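Honest question from a wet-lab person: if I give you the sequences of every part of a complex, can you actually get the arrangement of the whole thing, not just the pieces? Trying it with mine:
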Amino acid sequence: MKLFGYSMREILLLKLFKLGDFLIFFIFISIIILALNYYFHLPKGDYLEISHENEIKHYSLLQNKTLIFDEIEVEINMGKARIKKSNCSNQYCIMQGWISKINHSVVCIPNLFKISIKSKMLSYDSTNY
Amino acid sequence: MTAQTINIHQISKFCAIAIILHSAEFFFPTPIFGIKPGIANIIILFTYLKFNFKSAVYVSLIRVFISSLIIGTFITPTFFISLSGAILSLIFLFLCQFLSHQFFSIYTFSMLMGLGHILGQFIIVRMFVIPDDGVFILFPIFLLFTFIFSLINAFIVSRLISPSN
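Yes, you can. This is the full assembly:
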């Protein structure tokens, strides 16, 4: 197979690349792998915050439980949570599925309902100046 | 013509090419917002290799200013993100000069320039546009695409400067 007149073998065997380039490749790829690793392993949350009818309630995430608020069912399953049932027309809140990472949240706009995962450590989700 | 006028003539020629590439790239459809191939960097690297670092600085900065006037993003956040990316990319190119040319080829140059470009953009975005650590979630994705596109760009530059052309 030829690419712009060079065979793949020539490209691979230092015809175009020099020794230091491979060092830079290695550093670059390891940075990418580390960053992706961080990206897929965001810290998990400590408790679930549910805001419903201007009330904010906290629930532990380390349990198997189904909570019922009027029309909505929230399911907690050992570290993750989701909205299981809702009477809203679009059902977007159910399509969001499970959440388990800090500051992730699911909202149901028609019912003015929100669940979000928080941690005990103080964290800012926005700053203003 | 004196040597200086030839130099100005050459620089303006490369500026024109870089401006066209940069402006055309702005209208490229991209699947993820902000990911662009950075084809104008080909011209900057080429200018650096053909002439010197000073001409590359001219081409890069004139390219940013003029193409932002053409696109219509002059003195908007987009312009400042682009400018800071270009400046940090040039600083990385300046540091590349001290690398041994025996061990490092233009592939290293291109990759470090790309890295400088996204670092500059992320610094400005984190400071002024989206002042939240959440933007760094996008960093690995940008890094991955920088790696791919800088390799392609360096390959094109290596074809442009090869003696067979």
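Two things worth pointing out. The mean pLDDT of chain A is 81. Chain A touches chain B at residues 4, 16-21, 24-25, 28-29, 31-32, 35-36, 38-39, 124-129 (CB under 8 Å).
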